[in-house]
Specification:
Elements: H1 10-13, E1 20-21, E2 30-33, E3 84-98, H2 104-117, E4 122-129, E5 135-140, E6 146-151, E7 155-160, E8 170-177, E9 185-193, H3 198-211, H4 215-222, E10 238-252, E11 258-260, E12 263-264, E13 267-271, E14 276-285, E15 295-305, E16 315-316, E17 318-326, E18 331-339, E19 359-369, E20 376-387, E21 401-411, E22 421-428, H5 434-437, H6 462-465, H7 486-501, H8 510-516, H9 523-531, H10 536-545, H11 553-560, H12 576-591, H13 601-609, H14 614-627, H15 639-655, H16 657-666, H17 671-680, H18 688-701, H19 704-716, H20 718-721, H21 726-740, H22 744-754, H23 762-861, H24 864-941, H25 946-970, H26 973-980
Parallel strand pairs: 2-7, 13-20
Antiparallel strand pairs: 1-2, 3-4, 3-9, 4-5, 5-6, 7-8, 8-9, 10-11, 10-14, 10-21, 12-13, 14-18, 15-16, 15-19, 17-18, 19-20, 21-22
Helix pairs in contact: 8-18, 9-18, 10-14, 11-12, 12-13, 12-14, 13-14, 15-16, 15-17, 15-23, 18-19, 18-22, 19-22, 23-24, 24-25
Keywords: Coiled coil, GTPase activation
InterPro entries: Kinesin-like, PH-like_dom_sf, PTB/PI_dom, Rab-GAP-TBC_dom, Rab-GAP_TBC_sf, Rab_GAP_TBC_domain
GO molecular function, one term: GTPase activator activity
Length: about 1000
């Protein structure tokens, strides 16, 4: 099987070649053309072949070369509005479900089976469109009503029967039925022409349908407008809508709610084993005059670890919130999805990442928008870092991920008056950091006027670059002539001769010649010499790299179909140019594992392939990426790209202050138009002549060329840009500006202006950016430190409150103990006083009794009779008294000993109680001192009220005084008791 050249005429394509395969640009479609058959006039065909008078009828709408042999009238069927060719006299044999839609063997087998089984099928007419934008329509042969439509973009393979076989009059194609890859069903539809010779013409029409692009695109490339008679059926122009997606990740805060996680530079900080929510807000940034897109519903939010992941590897989240909100910039659509971290498919996002590593998180949201036929998918790829579950975040500012999307919609006819679109393309420049892009400084230098040049309108008339409508210029547009003057050849011949002798040193004439533009015939050689590509080992390594696999292959395949579609070398799907571009892009992705493949890299690679073989292009690509620093723009979350955009901001402020202020007033930021310029070296939008001249100067000078070209473009278009609003400015950069550069004279003047712009302050602006970055990081650190100190202060306040509570409890306890001691002291004093009173009363009574007895004895002793008796009684009394006294002394001694024992026990108990009270007092005093010390430390960190210090001092003095009083009261007891003993 060999690939068919798209420019080969139909007549040559139908020549006898073995199994020619044609692939469609949007899907892997193949057309098998085995033999050519000369179409004879229907009049000369056997009338018995079909009951229809005109078996082959064609409606020529696209090319006047499509002529029919029949001179009969043409029947028109207008149920489907499209440029087409209608074939009558066709029998529909049926459809069969197949598993291998691209297998010609299986299709031929199904064709044989149905042709043998079906003798009389359904008589139909088949309408084949003239371009890939239409549909194959099957009409009922009798009523001319539409039976079925098959979009060309869904046709996977086409084949016709083998010549000189029973199936020579048959043809078939496989069609994909279903909305997704997982649910797709491949059907093989088989037809049989009543006249076998008509199969060749059917095959030619299918080939044209697969190869031709819609009229709107061809008109854009050729700079022509369709006739006024066709405007009613022509597809509308492409419109660009700017959507902004804001993403936050929230985690369960343990209080029944969710709080946002911090985002540090280019990655989110997550904790493992914590429930999460992903909150997405989609906002349309549009002017008042632009149509508003209404999001009807959301199919779902899908996430997966890694980047460039397959749809089948993504995990659907449970939707918890859907709704619209009226934001500052317009209507917002809010989506929230519940993320269960314990899902097995998301295990990588629930494991702690090493200290110096980050992992990718891919988030996709599918939206259904009113007026757009198919759902649109917005894809976000960002870094995340997973920390332990108990990780605590200090102060952090709320930073959401903001990513713009440029939605290119193509207006299509609709039965009602409502606008109807289909998605042409969705582009994004990656996440943006508005804080970085809006950095400003005080003006440090006076404004410098840019040199005046001829207006671009004098070279490109306005009616010419407006002739294509709103269609953007296809990349790869423009013819670059290889002719050059004799003077240029002589100059370059001398320079290359000197350069060949000493390849390490550039001749002094090189800069001047390069700035004027390198002749096209010499570009490949001169580019290699400017980049200093003389390492043969790199070419050998390239042959090894293309044999290895890369996880970026799917992305590369998707991008190369959009790379230089207007150029002959790359517009054929599966052609040699696209194969070489695929190998080159994959080789770089395998070689540079840190950057891999980035969107837009294919444009630069295609530019190099137009001038040199693959191996040499790979060497130059490596030099541009590494030595010229282009890969730095893709690293570290586009940190270097932010630097370049900031430098461009400052250069605009210096050279074009009015335009700079106008952009600020309209809300236009440099990343909206300059990101693609810098990332692709202007290769994605502009004509080839201008692109090649930019690469010439870039390889000579380096990075400063990017700023010179940007300022030159802005200077030449300043007058137009000053009159436009936000939406019109973006459209101007996307559509109008590239078209203005189609003329070589315009491109030459632009580069002549660009090389005259001095870039003396780039280093200064870089230092300013780094200073701002450092200041911002320092501010973040100070903010974090401030928040940490706030947290410490809060903890100190809590500790202070706790200590105050403890102090209050200690004071209450001490107060109770003092009151209890005072109460016991009063009770003991009352008892002692009572005993003293009793003793005093008894002594008084004893004295009275003794006095009464002595008086009685004196009276008795005065009587003689009683005197003796009294004397005797006194003697006896004395004896008894002596005995009693002795006995009493004995009893008193025993009582005294018993009393001493009791007093010793009581003293021991009193001493034990005193020791316990002193120990308790010492504990309380120790606690009080430690509390006072802690409060003193806390008071040194924060201002304490004076009443707290006075209270603590008074409590401490009272405690010490109480201890001394108790010791003084208990001290005299021991000598008294010892004396008693």
């Amino acid at each position: 099987m060999i690939t068919e050249d798209v420019d080969r005429p139909i007549k040559e394509a139908l020549s006898p070649v073995g199994g020619t395969v044609l692939t469609h640009e949007d899907s892997p479609i193949a057309v098998s053309l085995d033999d050519s058959v000369e179409i004879t006039s229907p009049a000369s065909m056997p009338r018995s072949a079909s009951p229809i008078d005109h078996p082959l009828k064609e409606i020529p709408l696209t090319s006047p070369t499509q002529e029919l042999s029949s001179s009969d009238d043409i029947d028109e069927i207008c149920d489907v509005l499209q440029d087409c060719t209608i074939f009558n006299g066709v029998t529909y044999l049926g459809t069969v479900t197949v598993n291998a839609p691209k297998s010609e063997t299986e299709i031929q087998r199904n064709m044989v089976d149905l042709n043998e089984q079906i003798v009389e099928g359904i008589k139909v007419s088949v309408s084949i469109p003239s371009c890939s934008d239409g549909s194959v329509v099957m009409y009922d042969g009798a009523t001319n009503t539409v039976m079925k439509k098959y979009e060309v973009c869904r046709i996977t393979f086409y084949a016709h029967g083998k010549p000189e076989s029973n199936e020579a009059a048959c043809f078939a194609f496989t069609w994909t039925h279903g909305d997704s890859i997982e649910s797709s069903i491949f059907q093989c539809h088989v037809f049989r022409c009543d006249i076998p010779e008509a199969v060749g013409q059917v095959s030619a029409c299918f080939m044209k349908a697969f190869q031709r692009v819609p009229k709107s695109l061809t008109a854009s490339v050729n700079g022509e407008l369709p006739p006024e008679t066709d405007l009613s059926n022509n597809v509308g122009g492409t419109q660009m809508f700017l959507l902004e997606l804001t993403m936050e990740i929230k985690e369960d805060d343990g209080k029944g709610g969710f709080s946002s996680v911090p985002r540090d530079r280019d990655f989110f900080k997550l904790r493992c084993n914590v429930e999460k929510q992903i909150c997405l807000t989609v906002t349309q940034l549009a002017s008042e005059s632009q149509q508003k897109l209404e999001v009807k519903r959301c199919f779902g939010v899908l996430i997966a670890p890694g980047r460039h992941v397959k749809h089948s590897d993504m995990q659907l989240l449970d939707m918890v919130l859907l709704g619209s909100d009226k934001g500052d910039n317009g209507n917002c659509f809010v989506i929230s999805g519940q993320w269960n971290p314990k899902e097995p498919a998301l295990n990588r996002l629930n494991m702690e990442t090493p200290r110096e590593e980050k992992i990718f998180l891919t988030v996709a949201v599918d939206l259904v928008v009113r007026g757009i036929r198919e759902p649109i998918r917005l894809l976000v790829e960002t870094h995340v870092k997973v920390f332990p579950q108990n990780e605590r975040w200090w102060y952090f500012s709320k930073r959401s991920l903001i990513q713009p999307y440029f939605l290119h919609l193509k207006e299509v006819p609709s039965s009602d008056n409502e606008p109807n679109f289909e998605v042409s393309n969705i582009e994004t420049s990656g996440p943006i950091d508005r804080n970085r892009l809006n950095l400003t400084l005080n003006n440090l230098a006076s404004y410098i006027r840019s040199p005046s040049i001829t207006s671009i309108d004098t070279l490109t008339p306005r009616d010419e670059y407006n002739s294509d409508g709103d269609e953007p210029l296809l990349s790869g547009t423009g013819e670059v002539s290889k002719d050059c003057t004799e003077v240029e050849l002589e100059s370059w011949s001398d320079v290359l001769g000197k350069w060949s002798i000493n390849r390490s040193t550039r001749p002094k004439q090189v800069p001047a010649l390069v700035k004027q533009g390198i002749p096209e015939a010499l570009r490949g050689e001169v580019w290699q010499r400017l980049a200093k590509c003389d390492d043969s080992s790199v070419m050998d390594n390239y042959r090894i790299l293309i044999t290895k696999e890369s996880n970026c292959e799917a992305v590369i395949l998707r991008d190369i179909n959009r790379t230089f579609p207007a150029h002959e070398m790359f517009k054929e799907t599966g052609g040699g140019g696209q194969d070489a571009l695929f190998r080159l892009s994959k080789a770089y992705a395998v070689h540079d594992t840190e950057v891999g493949y980035c969107q837009g890299l294919s444009f630069l690679a295609a530019t190099l392939l137009l001038h040199m073989p693959e191996e040499q292009a790979f060497c130059v690509l490596l030099k541009i990426m590494y030595d010229y620093g282009l890969r730095e723009l893709y690293k570290d979350g586009f940190e270097c790209l932010y630097l370049r955009l900031y430098q461009l901001n400052r250069l605009m402020e210096e050279h074009l202050p009015q335009l700079y202020q106008h952009f600020r007033d309209k809300g236009v930021e440099t990343h909206m138009f300059a990101s693609q310029w810098f990332l692709t070296l202007y290769t994605a939008r502009f004509p080839l002549y201008f692109v090649f001249h930019i690469i010439d100067v870039f390889l000579l000078q380096g990075t400063e060329t990017l700023f010179q070209v940007a300022l030159a473009l802005l200077t030449m278009c300043k007058k137009d840009l000053m009159q436009l609003d936000f939406e019109s400015i973006l459209k101007y950069f996307r559509v109008t500006l590239p078209k203005k550069c189609r003329h070589e004279e315009v491109a030459r003047n632009l580069m002549k202006l660009a090389v005259t712009i001095k870039m003396k302050k780039l280093k200064k602006y870089e230092q300013e950016f780094l200073a701002f970055k450092e200041a911002q990081e320092s501010a973040d650190q100070y903010s974090n430190e401030l928040e940490r100190l706030k947290c410490e202060l809060m903890r100190s306040e809590e500790e202070k409150k706790r200590l105050e509570d403890q102090l209050s409890q200690v004071k209450d306890m001490l107060k109770r103990e003092v009151q209890k001691a005072e109460s016991d002291n009063q009770k003991n004093s009352a008892i002692i006083n009572g005993y003293k009173e009793v003793c005093q009363r008894l002594d008084t009574e004893q004295q009275v009794a003794k006095t009464s007895l002595n008086q009685l004895m004196s009276v008795i002793s005065g009587c003689e009779r009683c005197g003796e008796l009294a004397q005797k009684m006194a003697t006896n009394s004395n004896a008894v008294s002596n005995k009693t006294k002795k006995a009493g002394e004995d009893n008193s001694e025993a009582q005294l000993l018993h009393r001493i024992t009791e007093l010793e026990l009581e003293l021991a108990r009193a001493k034990l109680g005193q020791v316990e009270a002193e120990c308790k007092n010492q504990d309380l005093t120790h606690k009080l001192c430690s509390t006072a010390a802690e409060l003193h430390v806390a008071r040194s960190q924060a201002a304490w009220p004076p009443w707290i210090s006075k209270t603590l001092s008074s409590i401490k003095e009272a405690a010490v005084h109480k201890t001394m009083v108790q010791r003084r009261e208990s001290a005299p007891l021991e000598p008294t008791e010892n004396t008693t003993v």
